[in-house]
Amino acid sequence: MICNQCPRKCNTDRESTLGFCKSPQHFRVSRAALHFWEEPCISGTNGSGAIFFAGCSLRCAFCQNWEISHMRKGLPVDIDRLRDIFDELADQGAHNINLVNPTHFVPFIQKAFKRYQKRIPVVYNTHGYDSLDALHRMDGIVDVYLPDLKYTYSLPARRYSSAPNYFEVAKVAIDEMFRQVGPVQYDENGLLKKGVIIRHLVLPGQTDSAKDVIDYVADHFEKGSVLFSLMSQYIPCGEVTRYPEINRRLTQEEYDEVAQYLMDSPIDNGFMQEL
Predict the structure, then answer these.
(1) Given this model, what pLDDT does residue 15 score?
(2) Which residues pair with 13 in a beta bridge?
(3) What is the pLDDT of residues 138-159, one digit of tens each?
(4) DSSP readout, the chain?
(5) Is 201 exposed, middle or buried (0-12, 13-18, 19+ CB in 10 A)?
(6) Nearest to 66, CA basis, from 75, 76, 55
(7) 75, 100 Cβ separation under 8 angstroms
């Protein structure tokens, strides 16, 4: 397969060589299990059926899943086995099938769903750097989109993720996600059955950037139509020793500043982590 699946457009034949994501053509799955640490409307009481795909098309320097995204640790899985994993997670009581970092495997995930009778909602859990082509393939399959909105500024996007056009790509991608699934909808148990949750991880020294993300979401989406999740879980890992300005933990003062800004914003539907 000549791969131009993500916005990097590597034009790489993944049967014989590797592109930016360093992933072969066929799936590698790092973990498939019930996951209890997503937002409450995703994890619920039984857990989300999370499938972590190895490799990544963004490969942030501070990634907390380094062994999965950069080292690509995992096992090869074919399309039929992936379909069986969907059923196994549903049988365990998962509230949804949670595709974690699926971007670089979208054509093959689409094929797996063509062989699967969907029983529970499907969550597309992504870094936000997604092409419209990939998202169009998932139209009608995905019920809940869970994108990051990591940056609005090009300098940190270039420095930490080698993606200076991150915001231009992500805002178009998130608009397409919203077009597909519409405003948030809950089931009778308060679990999300349709909609978009936009996540933002606050980075050390990047409080202005975080506020800009909040402003964008508040201005761009009708109040209450999407959920916003402010995340404080940053820890220095990955390759951050190369970037001394983020080679430290987020301070309480930094997070409180952004959290207060969010509370003062028009956004009133979402989540905040404690530091």
Answers:
(1) 73
(2) 2
(3) 999 999 999 999 999 999 999 9
(4) -EE--STT---EETTTS--TT---SS-EEEEEEEE--S-HHHHTTT-EEEEEES--SS--TT-TTHHHHTS--SEE--HHHHHHHHHHHHHTT-SSEEEES-GGGHHHHHHHHHT----S-EEEEE-S---HHHHHHHTTT-SEEEEB---SSHHHHHHHHS-TTHHHHHHHHHHHHHHHH-S-EE-TTS-EEEEEEEEEEPPTT-HHHHHHHHHHHHHHS-TTSSEEEEE------TTGGG-GGGSSPPPHHHHHHHHHHHHHSS--SEEE---
(5) buried
(6) 55
(7) no
How confident is the model over 156-173, as a mean pLDDT?
Answer: 97
Query: Quick one: pLDDT at residue 70?
Result: 81
The one-letter code for the residue type at 268 is D
Q: CA 148 → CA 75, 126, 127, 254, 258, distances in Å?
A: 26, 6, 5, 20, 17
pLDDT digits over 84-94, tens only? 999 999 999 99
CA 20 to chain CA centroid, nearest Å: 18
pLDDT for the residue numbered 22: 66
